[in-house]
Every structure is written in C-alpha cells, then in structure tokens.
Amino acid sequence: MKFPKFLLAMTIASSSVFVSAQPPDENVADLFNRQDWLTLEKIFPEIKDSIRDPCLRYMTQSLLDCSFNRPRQALGALDTLMGPLLVNMSFSNIPNMVLFRCEAMRLNKKYAAAADYLDSFLRYLSATMDISRFPEHLQMSRILNGLRDAPAPEIVRPERDVRLPLAIRPVVVKGRTEGAHLSVPVAINGKTYPFTLDTGTGTTAISQRLADELGLRTICDSIRIDGIGSRLGSLAIADSLCVGNIVYKNPVVAVLPPNPAVDTLLYIDAILGRDLLIAVGEVQIYPKKKKTVFPATPTPSPLPEKNLVLMNGGDPYLEAWSGDERLLMLFDTGNSTGGMYPSYYRKHKERIETEGAPDTVLVGGMDLYTATVYRLPGFPLRTCGSEIGIDNMIVETAENGPSRTGQSGDGVLGMDFIRQFRKVTINFSQMYVAAEK
C-alpha cells in the first residue's frame, strides 16, 4: 500500500530547460534535464566555477541543495537566482522556481515572508492572465498564509539514543498476504497511537476521525493531498508529537478524509512522515529484532558516496543496480511490498513475460485500483552496500490506475526490501541508506 504525500511535486515544467550550451554547460544541462541529481552532485563542485551561464549554475546549485536536504544553502542560491539573475531567466521557468523558493523559505521557517513573496507574484500574474492556471501556486499560498502566524516546528530530544518497539504486521487483501506494515508508538497531544513509519509520505498525517478526537486546530482546508490518486484534506497543528523521549513541538499534520474503499482493506489512523525523520536526521530499523533506534550521534556513512536523493517534492529515491542496469527506486517504507513501474516493464517486456507469472493485485493509496502485473521469481538487486534477491517482485504492466503525481524512476522499494535485512539505517542528514544482512 502506498500512502499520500503532502508536499507538492515541483518539477521543471519544460522537458528541455537548457537547449543551447557549451561544455561544461552542455554536460550539466543534459544531466539537469534528465534530473540525474546523483551524478550532478558528484561532479558539480569541481566544474561549477567553469559554467558560463550564471542561470544554469545557480539553478543547478539550488536544485542540488533541495535534492540533498540543504535548505539553508538552497535558499541562498535561489535568492541570487530570483534576484540579480532573474532578468536572464526564461519566463517559462520562473513560476516553478518561485515555488521552489517558497518551499525553501518554508523549510527555513520563513512563513510570512514566503506568503508575501508568493502573493506578490500572483498579483503580478493576475494583471495579464488567469491565475486559475496556477493551482499549485494558489494552494501553496493558502498553506503559507495558514502558517503565517504559526509557531515553527522544533525537535527537543535527550543526548542519548532513543529506542522504540517496532510492530510489523501482515497486510491481508482478500485473503492473500500482500507484504507487511510497520508502526511505532507515538504520543500526540498526550495520547498514544500506532503511527506508520513512512518515508514515502512528506508530512505526518492523521485521519479525520483522530483529528476530531484530539481537537486539533485547522489552519488550512481544501488542500489536495496526492499519493496514488488524490483527495481534498486539511492541515492542522498539534501541540506536540512524542516519539519516545523525542518531542516534536508544533508539528503541522495533514488531516486525511475517509475513503471506505481503501479503509476497509487497511485502515491507518496515523502516519509518521519524512518531516520528523528529516528533523531528527537518522533512524535505524531492526526488522528481525522489531525495534527502532533514533541515535543521538549520527552514524558516519559506510558507503563511498551518497545514494539517497529527494525528488518530486521531496520523495526519497535510492540508486540501485540490477546486474549492469542502473535503477532509481522510490524508497517507501509505507509500501507493504514494492515493485517495478510500467516504464520498467516496457524496457524489459520480452524477458518479464517469459520469466514472470501473470497476476492481478490491488494497489492503494488515496484511491484504489486493480493492476495487471507479472511476478518475477527472483530479482537481483545491489544497493545500500548489500546484494540481495527479491522474490515475487511485482512488475506493473500499464498506467491503468489513478495518477501518481510526479512519479519518477523505475520502481519502489518497500517492506519486501526492508525485511531482507538485520538493520537498515536511514540518514537524511548525510543522505544515505545502508542495509546490513
């Protein structure tokens, strides 16, 4: 199962942003347009000073900073790009870069300044065009104005490791087990509930039923919440979330409306999203011992380079290899299984249809649909410092379900991946995932 994400998918509107450039500009522009941020992150420090086009240099710098969880640096680059260099930028890129700057300001807790900046831009647009053509900007404006006077979220934690029990239970759909679901105990406003630990959801979220029970204060309603499909929900502020001895003060939570079609299969009251995981920096999952650890001191990366990147509004993607093929996989602990996207099926159709067994599965998030798939008997994968084989890897054959906003990559690694290991370290401070058998 895939659960919703709140953050907007803020990708560059044009498939070819930079079409005329000279080396090294040409190489950077090619990687930029392919959104190969992992490669760009490796080479950019050495070549950035030789990039001739200042817009290309600062746009690349800002998006790399966004992609590798450096919001303060991202805002600095965006301030330069949207200030002195704005006259050099194509208008087709400006609306999306305005959204990026607003998101960077939000992450830096500059809510009122971001709201004023975006509202000024919308007023400018409204003089010459219908601003209903910019629904993402209008939604972001409502969010930022709702947050305008809100206290900023804050993490307060002890200077020691925080350990929590981890519950793993099977997901049973129409009598058939389809993976597993994990949760940890979290107290919200003084009451404890099981929260799904979900790297695939951008912000902590709770059901409408739970929000009503807790009496949370709504700051913004009619917010489109995307996952697999979409629904209109709202945003609220809680006094605190307590994850063991870690206190998350003033968290913004998404409030999810009910959907009987999905809820009757797997009802989730609460989701612990990336906002907290990024704020604390690191979490260690021990599937076999059924525990989680939030270390007081970040673990130095055992990997030679970063393998985790934020894309499409903040979704985490892992670099992986299957044989000699490089893959980009959504890393989603809220997904009960995992699988490959239709784009992968199209590239390997003959092999998949020869080796795989046809089947149908229910895929759910904000909506629910039946997908035609193949199940591969063994899928070799090399990532996170380990080599494994995933049995019964699902491969979807067609884009026949609700839209997945901003979907990129070749597939998704969920609980079928997590349960292969003794320990999985997820570190958003240094942008890596390491897995130990």
From TrEMBL:
InterPro entries: Peptidase_aspartic_dom_sf (IPR021109), Retropepsin-like_bacterial (IPR034122). The keyword Cell cycle does not apply. One of its GO terms (molecular function) is peptidase activity. Keywords: Hydrolase, Protease, Signal. The keyword Glycoprotein does not apply. Residues 1-21 form the signal peptide. One of its GO terms (biological process) is proteolysis. It comes from the Bacteria. SUPFAM superfamilies: Acid proteases. Pfam families: Asp_protease_2. This is Clan AA aspartic protease. It comes from Alistipes hominis.
